[in-house]
Amino acid sequence: MTPNYPPEPFRIKVVEPIRLIPPAERIKAIQTAGYNPFSLKAEDIFIDLLTDSGTGAMSQHQWAAIMEGDESYAGARSYFRLKDAVDDIFGFKHFVPTHQGRAAENILSAVLVKPGCSVPSNMHFDTTDANIRARGGRPANLVIDEAFDPANPHPFKGNMDLAKLKAFIEQIGVKNIPFGMITVTNNAGGGQPVSMENIKAVAALYHAYGIPFYIDAARYAENAYFIKLREPGFADKTPIEIAREMFSYADGFCMSAKKDAIVNIGGLLALNDETAFRQVSNELILREGFVSYGGLAGRDLDAMAVGLYEGLDEDYLAYRLSQTAYLAGLLREQGIGLIEPPGGHAIYIDAGSLLPHIPHGEFPGQTLAVEMYLEGAIRACEIGSVMFAHPDPDTGEMIFPRLELVRLAIPRRVYTQSHLNYLAETIGKIARRADQLRGYKFTYAPELLRHFTARFEPLK
Ligand SMILES: *Cc1c(COP(=O)(O)O)cnc(C)c1O
Fold first, then answer.
1. What angle do CA 76, 81, 84 make, to 5 degrees?
2. Which of 258, 405, 424, 447 is 20 to 30 A away from residue 73, measured at CA?
């Protein structure tokens, strides 16, 4: 059965040409890139699903708002328009703009993380994980076990395991936990949503121990819409009402606005704590810019102020989540293992099950990502051992992630149904000859965030 594909709730006014280069040129391009899709030239790619971050198409309203940008150094009108939107949707006492999500994480970590401390979450995303480690902290992932079973249809696989969290706090001790987090939706775990019930219970648990609670809010609008679709009691609420309730339980949030705020650059950090806010302001001024622009141009703040509302639009969210489900349906029909149910922003192919003959240390996810480029000039992102394998800080032994995934992240309002059909056909061709694929080994790998710049060589 062909999955449902609702017509896009927009029409195309500006086009950006793309070109499918011939197979021989693709072989050369991926060799030059050290078999790392991050190092490819964008113009050599036909369909780019590396990330949904900053790759969305802005609306005519956002482009119009850009023309109204006020570039005053301090107290610009653009700042106050953003402040109105942030106060209206999120409702915290203080906020600062940052140039993107990781800048907000860096500042939060600089202010709160001390060497040796731990920061629990359902699952930290790679930049959050690295920012905590870079300050000597230890990120801990305490998502429910269902998250690690790709076939389990649990509607909220991003949920925190409350028993694990309680045991963790008891074991580590409150004084070694400067703050706790939860990521909505859970990007590293497949873009899976967190239920309102879980957010509320996680907040109550953190607060019972006096631990401040921060949300990593990159995909808060998609999470809100999943709550509307799947959680009893929310069907009649609007996404913005649901978002307001989600944030009402938290003490602050950090956010990449490059996702659900549909801007090409931008981030936010918000919190209620007065003392922490003063330190945040000082760090921001030191590293990013003055508190009313945080490393962005005034026009970027305006695009974000408009995009925050567009990302919460119900017709847009219905189209967005159906598009993801449609692509998942086409892949599922061909017997390709996915994280089920599909998340909001991306499809996660279970490369471990597609390439069972390639062990963790030979990077099955990387192998599939390279093959997608060779077969169809598609760029996707490995989320597996290249990204997350690391030596245990105590024993030095290699710890591999439980899942070897390839993420097809879908940029917002960018690709059409025929692009998705082409993707599914290309991946189907690879799946039919999967047993012939061989793994890769590193020829270069930096210590932190190594997937961005690592280089590889095919194994014989
Ligand atoms: C993208 C993302 C970040 C980092 O944001 P950048 O804007 O890329 O720096 C942090 N957490 C999550 C969940 C993300 O998806």
1. 130
2. 258
